[in-house]
Amino acid sequence: MNNANENRKRLYRIIVVGLMAALVYIGNYMEIKFQNDTRIHLGNSMCLLAGLLFGSLTGGLASGIGGGLYDLFSPIYITSAPMTFINKFAMGWTAGKINRSGIKNEYTRTLIAAVCGQLAYIALYLGKSFIEQLILGNPFETAASVMATKAATSCINGVLAVIIAVPLSIALKKALKASGFSYMTEGKPVSKGYFNPLTTVLTVFALAVTAGFAIRLSADSKIKAAQEEKEQSYVQQIDDLNSRIDFLYEQLGMTYPEPQETEE
Questions:
Q1: Where are the alpha helices (DSSP H) in 179-196?
Q2: What is the model's pTM?
Q3: DSSP string for 35-46
Q4: Opening angle at CA 25, ends 23 and 28, nearest 5
Q5: What are the domain boundaries of the chain?
Q6: Strand residue runs (E) in the chain
């Protein structure tokens, strides 16, 4: 009987991960786009909601899967999908972890958890974007200017996400308790230490993705530099040819022929 109950609870958690991931995915499409690939959207509010309601692991997985799938199916953001999974997972995980901490006041605890989850995401997102700008060969001033724009948009996204997620999570938590699913909102997973199989796999995955991302950006930067060098070489060759033609015309006492106008 106990095994049947545990299997049912495990199935419910898998369903919750799928449902919340779908909400995160859909929330990313509710957006307002700006320049420099920045946008305001509701995806982050759904990430926070998943963590606040269902805890660190369930909320983190739902956030990472939903955000990663959005990038994966977008031609603009497809290469960022692995890093987005990590960043969104961190947001949901942080919110869920703090919301099940020892802070007694529910409203204060939920607000602090949502703010910390959003700050964790913003720090990871801006850090990745800044390193990307530097690896691409942009000067520090340009990278800082891009980061200022992204930081402003990220803060707006963060404030909007907290305003939506906090009251919504409190209301939904009461509804879940009344419907008999309180164990999903209050269950405390057994701690297995920092280096359990999940954190180990995620750490290795993060390092592998970061290394691959850095290698790809480095290769793109080298290709871009080679193309610019080739273009400059072509320009130099054209200038040399023009100088030789000018010299020949001068030695021969000739002038460039005027272009003839065609009659309509």
A1: 182-186
A2: 0.68
A3: STT-EEESHHHH
A4: 105
A5: 2-187, 194-255
A6: 31-33, 39-41
**For residue 79, what are its two tokens?**
């290469």
Q: What is the pLDDT of residue 121?
A: 92
Q: How far apart are CA 178 and CA 174, in angstroms?
A: 6
Residue 1: its pLDDT value, please?
54
Is the pLDDT reported for residue 95 higher than 90?
yes
Q: Which CATH number fits domain 2-187: 1.10.540.10, 3.30.70.100, 1.10.1760.20, 1.10.8.420?
A: 1.10.1760.20
The separation between CA 254 and the C-alpha centre of its own chain, rounded to angstroms, equals 63
Residue 32 sits at φ, ψ, to 5 deg, of: -125, 120
Taking phi first (over 0 means left), then psi (-120 to 50 degrees means alpha), and beta for anything else, what does residue 37 get?
Answer: left
Question: Span 127-138, mean pLDDT?
Answer: 80
Predicted confidence (pLDDT) per residue in 202-226, tens digit: 555 555 555 555 555 555 666 666 6
